[in-house]
Amino acid sequence: MTTTTELTETTLLRFATAGSVDDGKSTLVGRLLHDSKSILTDQLEAVERASASRGAEGPDLALLTDGLRAEREQGITIDVAYRYFATPKRRFILADTPGHVQYTRNMVTGASTAELTVILIDARNGVVEQTRRHAALAALLRVPHVVLAVNKMDLVDYAEPVFAAIAEEFTAYALELGVPEVTAIPISALAGDNVVEPSANMDWYGGPTVLEHLETVPVTHDLSHCHARLPVQYVIRPQTAEHPDYRGYAGQIAAGSFRVGEQITVLPSGRSTKIAGIDLLGEPVDVAWTTQSVTILLEDDIDISRGDLLVPSKDAPPTTQDIEATVCHVADAPLTVGHRVLLKHGTRTVKAIVKDIPSRLTLADLSLHPHPGQLVANDIGRVKIRTAEPLPVDSYSDSRRTGSFILIDPNDGTTLTAGMVGESFASPEPVKDESEDDGWDF
Amino acid sequence: MTTTVAKADEGTEAPYALSHLDALESEAVHIFREVAGEFERPVVLFSGGKDSIVMLHLALKAFAPAAVPFSLLHVDTGHNFPEVLEYRDRTVARHGLRLHVASVQDYIDRGVLKERPDGTRNPLQTLPLTEKIQAEKFDAVFGGGRRDEEKARAKERVFSLRDEFSQWDPRRQRPELWNLYNGRHAPGEHVRVFPLSNWTELDVWQYIAREGIELPEIYFAHEREVFSRSGMWLTAGEWGGPKDGESVEKRLVRYRTVGDMSCTGAVDSDAVTLEQVITEIAASRLTERGATRADDKMSEAAMEDRKREGYF
User: Do residue B5 and residue A93 have CB atoms under 8 angstroms apart?
Assistant: First the structure.
């Protein structure tokens, strides 16, 4: 590993971690930062000072990542923390989320923007209930790549059979949930095996180290099968002598790609026109794609404002006032049937009401509990929502950005709930359904 | 079991991959436009430091060819580098922007704030800032803070809610999901917005180089009269140095961050171009604040406490 003196532009990978302190997650994160030379002298010194003042023997790498005083005093992590590191090949944004059962909402938050999740397992314990919860969350959030890091291999004599059995059990489970790709890697975060450097202790393993995998996993997808979507954020109208008639629709492309000359439809109005030009932050381009922030110029003067959605005319989503979704409740106060809320989807915020909560899901065994009446913090469940205006929603499985929404408390602005439109998991699988009458609707 | 991943050669991810700078730029522009669409009176904190210069550059790009729909706010400690103030005024004039100034010196002159024994004025910025926000009824305040700067900032949100006392309560911060920012707030409350949340120091410098953004001269190596205090080179001046036992010498230095003269240290450097500066930073083994900001060294919880009070 060299230091990050490569000054070329690389790509960016956003990834998340899931696992508990006991699994060695802080050590893994500390090791990634340390071995990729992302921890600088003064940060290490600060950690050493803090470790020494607490009477610790060596530097506690977990201190690199525990940010708030409340956590330091209690020795826990209570929120999502973002870490940054780079290698000559790639820039990384790590959403570091605590793995304790109460912090489902943090994992949902971290995974919502992640292209990859690293799930950590203690090789001595194998696949435990918490592992199944982490796998289910990665599947729910449709994280494209999952890495299973089987940690503490040094404590099981670096034995291949131990790793193979765990990897097989986990992979079968995750694929059943619809996780598209699992990469299992045997590591020792403490000793450094297969985190950054290949392990001399596990020559039976021929795959990449954690960092090598992070550096090479694709960060783009084939856009030809994506529905193109552009939520309009802002209308740019200079009304100056130089630009008397300029009217541009600014937004970040949420999915797919747009091309000059393409026939588009504006939702919810349904009016159609052609793209006359695409302005990519000051540079005219013929084509632009997700997640570029652009300004679109149209051939006809249509009444368009913030909250509208531009879509290809041949590929428009249906608009609906009845949304059925899987949600994670993230607020301390419960979500109840009849709750009046605001729903933010893309760039549009509308009034809505929670019509029904058909079921609550237990992540550990995927059992359904019909009609719970309410969802409390960290609950995952199904909800039916009626919106005051029609919304062009996609299924979350088709589009993470236009298939997701948040519910907001109209009184104090609290973010209540994270929602994902459509089915929970990519493939229906047999689960223990406690209700006799409803079929499997998850 | 293990899915093998083909080694991606340079460029195989084109045409749909964004470079890391393009991805960060696009995200920051999205944040600016969200605020423009959802708030009544946004303001951009502008100090003439490199992070706020990059913020302004991104804002200009986000709304071009129209004007930036925000005004600027500078909290002037009274100990600013003259080169930086000159840069500030020139930039404001060039883009036809409106600048608000909250002056620490005013507060000291009026007896509302007291000069600290060590002459450091950074901690005194909180009150002028929060009172200006209240007086002008700003409901969104853009700051150049980055989450890589300090551990307490690693948990900061892009949209950070502040109460009517500008206080930051970690337990009231909202989860941020996907790119759906929630800017709702009660009257009197405001939201601090950090478009550079996911940038690192090196990203900022690379972006400055790529975009050809002009910076105040003190970011490049120049001869300056400095003296040593707490292991940093401080600029000699009326603000409070050198004191007895401190001796002034002429050295070739540059600044990695720009803040109050009393607590912003220079580093020995002969980097006179952006490329040389970036090479020096990339090779440096010290984070920017650790090397040059006395106020961040106060204690492990210093930043957290000041954020709670309404600091940036």
Answer: no
**Residue A241 amino acid letter:** A
The whole-angstrom separation of Cα A216 and Cα A116 is 12
Decide if B174 and A414 are in contact by the 8 Å CB cutoff. Answer: yes
Mean pLDDT of chain B: 84
Q: Which of residues 279-298 of A touch B (CB under 8 A)?
A: 281-282, 289-293
| pLDDT one-digit tens code per residue, A336-345 | 999 999 999 9
Examine residue A161 and say whether the peptide bond preceding it is cis (omega within 30 degrees of 0).
Answer: no
A80 — contact with chain B (CB < 8 Å)? yes
Q: Which pLDDT belongs to residue B2?
A: 39
Q: Residue B231: how many CA atoms within 13 Å on its side-chain side?
A: 6
Q: How confident is the prediction for chain A on average, in pLDDT?
A: 87
Task: Please state whether the peptide bond connecting residue B15 to the residue before it is cis, i.e. omega within 30 degrees of 0.
Answer: yes
CB nearest B29 (choices: A221, A281, A290): A281
Classify each residue of B255-268 as buried b or exposed e, where b means 16 or more C-beta atoms within 10 Å of its C-beta.
bbbbbbbbbbbbbe
Check: CB of residue B29 under 8 Å from CB of residue B61. yes
What's the pLDDT score for residue A363? 87
Residues B259 and B291: their CA atoms lie apart, in Å, by 13
The strand pairing partners of A96, in sequence order, are A17, A81
Q: Do B175 and A50 touch (CB under 8 A)?
A: no
Strands A145-151 and A182-186: parallel
User: How far, CA to CA in Å, does B226 sit from each of A184, B221, B281?
Assistant: 55, 13, 21
Contact call for B22 and A108, based on CB within 8 A: no
- Average pLDDT for residues B168-172, to the nearest whole number? 75
Pairing of strands A283-285, A272-280: antiparallel
Scanning the structure block, which residue is given the tokens 């006359």? A276
Q: A188: closest CA among A168, A170, A165, A205? A: A205
Locate the DSSP E strands across A123-267: 145-151, 182-186, 230-231, 234-236, 248-252, 257-259, 263-267
pTM: 0.90
3-state secondary structure of A248: strand
B299 contact A CB<8A: no
Taking the C-alpha atoms of residue A430 and residue A173, their distance in angstroms, rounded to an integer, is 12
Which of A33-47, A55-69, A161-175, A204-218 bottoms out in mean pLDDT, i.e. has the lowest? Answer: A55-69
Mutation target among B10, B12, B20, B278 for the A interface, most CBs of A within 10 A: B20
Mean pLDDT over A253-268 rounds to: 96
Interchain CB contact of A56 with B (< 8 Å): no
Strand order in the sheet with B190-193: B99-103, B71-76, B42-45, B140-142, B190-193, B159-162
Instruction: Find the length of chain A.
Output: 442
Residue contact B178–A112, C-beta within 8 A: yes
Rounded Cα distance, A109 and A132, in Å: 18
Measured between CA atoms, the residue of chain B closest to residue A66 is B151
Adjacent-strand bridge partners of A301: none
- Per-residue model confidence (pLDDT) at position A435: 42
pLDDT bracket for residue B165 (50, 70, 90): confident
Judged by a CB distance cut-off of 8 A, whether residue A211 touches chain B is no
| B-chain residue closest to A51, CA distance | B300
- Written as one letter, the residue type at A173 is Y
What six digits make up the tokens of A254?
Answer: 């949420």
Largest CA distance in chain A: 75
Burial class from Cβ neighbours inside 10 Å (0-12, 13-18, 19+) for residue A285 reads: middle
Residue to test with chain B: of A84, A166, A286, most B Cβ within 10 A: A84
Q: Tell me whether B27 touches chain A (CB under 8 Å).
A: yes
| CB-based contact B178 A414, cutoff 8 Å | no
Chain B CB contacts of A304 below 8 Å? none
